[in-house]
Amino acid sequence: MADRRIDAESNPAASWWSLALVGVLAGVLSGTLGVGGGIVMVPLMTGMLRFSQHRAHATSLAAIVLIAISGVVRFAMDGEVAWTVGLALGVGGMLGSTVGAHLMHRLSPQALRIVFGAIVVLAGIRMVVSGQPEVGAQPSDLLGAVIGVAIGLVAGVASGVGGIGGGIIMVPAMVFFLGLSQHAAEGTSLLAIIFTAVAGTRVNLQHGRVDLRHAGVIGAAGIVFAQLGASLALAMSGERLSQLFGAFVVLVGIRMLAVTYRQRRAGGE
Cys-Cys link to 230, which of 21, 31, 79, 250 (CB 3.0-4.6 A)? Predict the structure, then answer.
C-alpha cells in the first residue's frame, strides 16, 4: 500500500494534449518500426510529464496494448503478419514479461533508468551499424515455434523491466533466426507485443503503478498514428528505417544514462 501512495504523490497531473502528443509520437514509431513505442514514451513521460519512473514504465506498457493492436491491423491488411510465429512469440513474451514486471518493482528508479538506457543504446547501435539484418534460413514449423517462444521470452523480460514492447529485440531476431522479411517481422512483432504488454500490465495493476486514464489517452492518440506509421513502413526500405530509428534510440538512451550519472554525482536518487 505504501508503494501506491508514494507513487501517486510523485505523479503530477498531466494535460490531455501533452498525453496525446506522447501517444502520437509513440504511434508513429510503433507502426513504422514494429515496436511498442515505450522507447519514446518512457523518456517523455518522465521528462516532459514528470511521471515517476515506475509509473511511466507501467503506464507506457498499458498504452502499448492499444497502439500495437492498431499497427497489427494495418500490417495484416498487406499480409505482413506471420500469425503462428506471432502466437509463439506471444507465449514466450507473456512468461518473460510477467517475470520482468515483477523484477521492475524490485529495482530503484535510478536502476530502472540505467537498465532502460543500456537496452536502447545497445539496440540502437546494432540498428545503425547493421541496418536491416541479413535474412536467415526459415526453420521447420516445430523448430520455428520453439525459437519463437525463446525470442519472446527474452523480449518479454526486457518488456517488463524496461516498459517497452520488446520489438527492438524481436524484429531483428525474427529476420535472422526465422527468415522473415523486415516488414513481416515488424507486423508479427506488433502481434506478439500485445501479449507481452497485457501480461506486464496485469502485474503492474496489482502493484498499483498504472494510471489507466493516462494510458487510455496515450493509447487512443497512438491508434490513429500507428496506422500512419505502418503505412510509412510498408512504403520504405527496412534498412533505412532501421538506421534512422537506431540513431534516434542511441540519443535517447545516452541522454537517459547521462541524466542518471549527473543525479548520482549530485547525490540524487
Answer: 31
